């Protein structure tokens, strides 16, 4: 018997709606770049020029964002994913380990394949060194997948420790995603549309991983093969209870 996560149809509907929206956003940014939409190019150029001018005048600002994007970048989540995967295996939760391997472990490959397809040059006048092509932002992909994947497997443990942790953890995760994306634009290593596309692709890959593996929370024992879901106890009024989810 396995508790798979999220456990309610309503949660899956919302996740699916967000995935569909992510497809729309990613395709819009990709087509906009390929077709050279004037409004999108003008917006990218204006924001990058502003970031470049401010960064040149404030070296400390550049150092801050460069450090943040390094410390809180995709490699950090890969390391955390490995540690969480080992913990899942020690607890005999194979599904959670596979979910982390597929989601976080392969997110860099997914981002690189998307970069190869678009082959967009980096913006001129970069304030930091960045390899590979520009579209989509690999940092945006990796951090989005990392934060959502780790929240998914650890969420019941976090909320059980203290109910009041829910909103600080949610806000902290969202702040990290936004901060790293902003930082890539502040360093002029990505167009804003690259970051939007990266967030969209990152969420979409998270959703595919979640829907394919159907992990159990990391504090529960799982098995490799399919098994029936263990529904929560019914509410006092007889209605089926809904399991809390981070999304």
Secondary structure layout:
Layout (H helix, E strand, L loop, with lengths): L8 H26 L3 H20 L1 H13 L2 H17 L3 H12 L1 H12 L19 H24 L4 H21 L5 H22 L34
Description:
By secondary structure, this protein is mainly alpha-helical. The longest helix has 26 residues, at 9-34. It has one domain. α1 (9-34) packs antiparallel against α9 (192-213) and α3 (59-71) crosses α8 (166-186). Mean pLDDT is 87; it is low at 222-245. The two termini are 24 Å apart. The protein is built from nine helices and no strands.
Summarize this structure as a short list of keywords or feature phrases:
single chain; mainly alpha
Helix percent reads: 55-70%
User: What is the H/E string?
Assistant: HHHHHHHHH
Uncertain spans: 222-245
The description of the largest β-sheet is: none
In what range is the share of β-strand residues? under 5%
Structural class: mainly alpha
Shape: globular
Could you give the count of β-strands? 0
Distance from N terminus to C terminus (CA atoms, Å) equals 24 Å
Helix segment tally: 9
Rg on CA atoms, Å: 20 Å
Compute the average pLDDT: 87
Short description:
It is built from 9 helices and no strands. It is mainly alpha-helical.
